[in-house]
Design a protein that fits this description.
12 helices, Rossmann fold, alpha/beta, globular
């Protein structure tokens, strides 16, 4: 499948009547892959991921050296959708000096005393760096919409449809501000099925080395699955824009999600057509003098 086809397949067009049910969580490649066995598919995915990691490593160095743009990656998904593993596998070749990852939990008292975007603004990547939000400000229109008690104190205390629409507007304006100032915003929803989530949660219980991952609260949230899916669908419809698009990624197969996300990230950075900065005349002169001082030719 060509790069443009991959990007278009998973990108949600602005103002579309996006329906989550139209996106298959178990998608594992186009028609050209249907004749391959599972082991062959995984092998090809591994090779594609390695190739994308090499490209990402190269383009990240350009991003860092160029110092004009930054990249913000937003990861959202239900529990056990593979967010942590995706970060580990996709970003493993990236220089840690140029990448930062933040996982956001329930707000602190200090954070509740500011606007809902305040704590995220403090963690934005500076120019030349890649920032990953493992869960993000979208929790404030997803989890907070399912659990309004998590919203904290509000100016008038009124929570209605207009309240949520204003939050979507705030997010769109925030992301537009970032893009206008050189931050590329890529948003990924890891779309896992309820059945696959059950399998992964059971693995956390059955396999001792995964016990630490299990949170009893995950079961309570699982019972609210329809509400969460409705909130995801509504939020993605309202906030997938030309400047900060959503990508709904099939996540039942971890290797598929990792390859697709890596591909979209490298494609977005490659489109910047960055090059290493050329030294000024003064700097070039200093370099020549340093070379002579070291006995170079």
């Amino acid at each position: 499948m060509k790069t443009r086809d991959i990007v278009d397949r998973f990108r949600i067009q602005p103002e579309s009547r996006f329906q989550l049910r139209d996106h298959d969580p178990a998608w594992a490649g186009g028609a050209e892959y249907k004749t391959l066995k599972r082991a062959e598919l995984k092998q090809e995915a591994t090779e594609l991921l390695q190739a994308n990691r090499k490209q990402l490593e190269a383009v990240q160095e350009l991003l860092y050296a160029n110092d004009r743009y930054s990249l913000l990656i937003v990861l959202q998904g239900m529990d056990a959708s593979g967010k942590d593993g995706l970060v580990k596998h996709v970003m493993s070749g990236v220089n840690p000096l140029g990448c930062q990852t933040y996982s956001f939990k329930r707000p602190t008292h200090e954070e509740y005393d500011h606007t809902f975007l305040w704590r995220f603004m403090k963690r934005l990547p500076e120019r030349g760096r890649i920032g990953i939000f493992n869960r993000s400000y979208y929790e404030d229109v997803l989890v907070a919409r399912v659990h309004p008690e998590f919203l904290g104190p509000l100016p008038n205390g009124k929570i209605d449809e207009k309240f949520w629409q204003r939050r979507y507007e705030d997010i769109n304006a925030f992301e537009r501000h970032l893009v206008r100032n050189g931050t590329i915003v890529l948003k990924f929803m890891l779309n896992i099925s309820k059945g696959e989530q059950k399998r992964r949660l059971l693995a956390r219980l059955d396999e001792p080395e995964k016990n630490w991952k299990f949170n009893p609260g995950d079961l309570a949230e699982r019972e609210l699955w329809p509400k969460y899916m409705d909130c995801y669908q509504t939020a993605i419809r309202a906030t997938s824009t030309d400047w900060a698009p959503w990508h709904v990624i099939p996540a039942d197969h971890k290797w598929v999600a990792r390859v697709v996300v890596a591909h979209i990230i490298t494609n977005a950075l490659a489109k910047l057509k960055l090059s290493f900065p050329k030294p000024s005349a003064e700097t070039a002169k200093a370099l020549r003098e340093a070379k002579r001082a070291l006995g170079g030719k």
